[in-house]
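Q: Given only this backbone (262 positions), what sequence would you predict?
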């Protein structure tokens, strides 16, 4: 379905990987190519690769657009077999019409509704005229500045998912999740250990502080979701806190949980 305009989850958004009319033309072109002696083997090869990937990923528990995105360009080659059947004049007219319709359409991309020509212009200007700030990278670097020495009794709770810490942190402090509703969870066991209200996760922080462990938290990345921010505030209500580090213009501040409130 996603090869013919169907929407599918891709990271944090639900978008079509292929426009419906482009997918239909590509599929039609591959079928037409099967009846051409010149392109029969190529079309059969493309179809076999696409269908094999569909079959393989259909056994996955979760559907994700990235699984199939690698074969989408191969599938789109089918358009060329269809266009080659047209005369040069009609081919040029057809390409101009298709591009006009394509870039003139209003679609919803990443929750923004705009014409594709506007999206293209914005992306080009972003790439050539602006610098994208890697805030997640800078946040972990800020955390590394504070956690300079290895400490097995140190625990750091963050809303930012664990993979950034796995890749970028100095690993001088143990990572803890603040909410079970982040983009990704550290392990399946951790996910299964959490309930919907995060009560079990908050209890883990209480137990660590009561056992004399040094526990820190940061609200960084909480603004990305009201639910995450709520879970962070619910956690803070259980403790007396002290600010120990400032960073990222105040968004990467670190707080120590000093004592469990009675």
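A: Predicted residues:
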């Amino acid at each position: 379905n996603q090869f013919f305009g169907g929407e599918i989850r891709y990271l944090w958004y639900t978008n079509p990987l292929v426009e419906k009319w482009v997918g239909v033309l590509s599929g039609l072109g591959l079928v037409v190519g099967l009846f051409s002696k010149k392109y029969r083997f190529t079309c059969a090869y493309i179809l076999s690769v696409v269908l094999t990937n569909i079959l393989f990923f259909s056994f996955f528990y979760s559907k994700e657009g990235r699984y199939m995105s690698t074969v989408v360009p191969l599938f789109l080659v089918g358009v060329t077999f269809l266009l080659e059947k047209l005369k040069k004049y009609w081919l040029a007219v057809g390409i101009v019409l298709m591009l006009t319709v394509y870039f003139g359409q209003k679609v919803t991309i990443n929750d923004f509704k705009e014409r594709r020509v506007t999206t293209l212009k914005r992306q080009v200007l972003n790439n050539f005229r602006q610098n994208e700030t890697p805030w997640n990278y800078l946040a972990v670097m800020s955390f590394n500045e504070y956690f300079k020495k290895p400490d097995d009794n140190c625990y750091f709770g963050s809303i930012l998912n664990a993979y950034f810490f796995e890749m970028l942190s100095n690993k001088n402090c143990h990572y803890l999740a603040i909410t079970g509703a982040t983009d990704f969870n550290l392990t399946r066991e951790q996910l299964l250990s959490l309930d919907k209200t995060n009560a079990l996760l908050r209890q883990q922080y209480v137990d660590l502080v009561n056992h004399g462990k040094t526990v820190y938290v940061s609200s960084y990345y909480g603004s990305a979701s009201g639910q995450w921010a709520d879970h962070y505030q619910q956690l803070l209500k259980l403790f007396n806190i002290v600010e120990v580090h400032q960073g990222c213009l105040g968004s990467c501040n670190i707080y120590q949980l000093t004592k469990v409130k009675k």
